[in-house]
Amino acid sequence: MAAFLAARVPGARAARRDAGVDRGARPATLGATDGRGRMRALRVRAGGLNGLRVEDVPDPGAPGPGELRVRIRASSLNYHDLNVVSADPPAVDGRVPMADGAGEVEAVGEGVADLRAGDLVVSTFFPDWLDGPPPPGAAGFARVPGDGLDGYGREAAVVPATWVTRAPQGWSAEEAATITTAGLTAWRALVVEGGLRPGDVVVCLGTGGVSVWALQVAKAAGATVIVTSSSDEKLERARALGADVVVNYREVPDWDRVVLEATGGRGADHVVEVGGQATLERSCRAARVGGRVALVGGVGGWGDRAPLRAILLRHLRVRGLVVGSRAMQADFVRALEATGIRPVVDRAYPLEAAAEAFRWQKAGGHFGKVALSI
Questions:
Q1: Which residues contact 307 (CB under 8 A, 6 or more apart)?
Q2: Is the previous residue joined to 89 through a cis bond, with omega within 30 degrees of 0?
Q3: Which end of the chain has fewer CB atoms surrounding its CB within 10 Å, N or C?
């Protein structure tokens, strides 16, 4: 536990150093071709999931000053990515999707001192958010790889060194790729913003990527964890990861009552809310007076209603958040190495089977994360 908490303390962070790249002047692609080769990349075309194609594209070439060339080995799927690849027509024809990317550094440009060839690195969700409070650009996806920029569904990318952090030692690329979006979201919700402490009660809705990560982070911190799911099989897997109380919300729709009963009427200190309109009201009823509800997703829809009375009378701190900064990710990586947490990768698909992977994700059959091996 001491090591876990120590990972939250700000210190000298080599990962925060700006490599001096003019990011604002960069085009909306990850590197420009130098004509020296070709590579494979996943691209979004008309037809939604049926239009996903692996195409032969120009190789990005060598890194420039402050840049890295990374051989991408894996990505992982998020609902944000599913929205991008399902759009028909796509927002940008030919866009390379996938916000998450992990792989080995193949070459470093002049001025890069903290990474070297052979290092396993993992991408950041908001490449321009290095530290501090969210910048204006974090209010949208215009600079998010796989959405406003070409992403990591490709064999290689040339990016500013500040667009990645190192990955935990000894991890596979598939494991590391789960950090960018789902892992960092859970870390920020519970530790950075939530101030998670031993003995806290945490509710995790469902068993998708963010929720399973939140379960693991909470248990490592000494918290009591309550998990909801519609699948008894998934609930048993959650128990195996340390869940203290599980509830099948199809059998017990008023699962907030179970939370109150399990806590002697007090309620939970933290609720990791991924359902949006479908679950937010129950999440607020499940939280203790003065508790925290981290709104991190809306898989059950967004709607236009909020339980304002419950928020007001229960003094709740409802915080919306989207992933986090590079500095948060560097802290998270250190915490992962200190605690020994390893992510749950449900399945890994080859790049050519990306549409199949997204269909598996959309069907909700996964427990934890779904990965692409590149």
A1: 280, 281, 284, 285
A2: yes
A3: N
Query: Which DSSP state fits 191?
Result: I
Is the Cα torsion angle 136, 124, 368, 287 positive or negative in sign? Answer: negative
Side chain identity, residue 373: S
Q: What CATH number belongs to 194-320?
A: 3.40.50.720
Please state, in angstroms and rounded to a whole number, the distance separating the CA atoms of residues 270 and 218. 10
- Tokens 């792989």 correspond to 103
Contact (CB, 8 A) for 183 and 123:
no
pLDDT surpassing 80 at residue 19: no
32/139 Cα distance (integer angstroms): 27
User: How does DSSP assign 324-371, residue by residue?
Assistant: --HHHHHHHHHHHHHH-----EEEEEEGGGHHHHHHHHHHT--SSEEE
Q: What average pLDDT is seen over the chain? A: 90
Look at 157 and 11; give whichever has higher pLDDT: 157
Q: How far apart are CA 59 and CA 36, in angstroms?
A: 7
Which helix or strand (DSSP H or E) is residue 220 part of? helix 209-220
The answer to whether 105 touches 119, Cβ cutoff 8 Å, is yes
Encoded tokens for 309? 């009375």
Enter the tokens of residue 193: 């913003």
pLDDT tens sequence across 219-278: 999 999 999 999 999 999 999 999 999 999 999 999 999 999 999 999 999 999 998 778
Give the start-to-end residue ranges of the domains of the chain. 9-181+326-334+342-373, 194-320
Give the CATH number of domain 9-181+326-334+342-373.
Answer: 3.90.180.10
Whether 142 contacts 92, CB under 8 Å? no
CA angle 234, 206, 243 (to 5 degrees): 65
Q: What pLDDT score was predicted for residue 31? A: 42
Spell out where the chain has E strands: 38-43, 53-58, 67-76, 102-108, 120-123, 156-160, 164-166, 201-205, 224-229, 245-248, 268-273, 287-295, 317-320, 345-350, 369-373
Does the global pTM surpass 0.85? Answer: yes
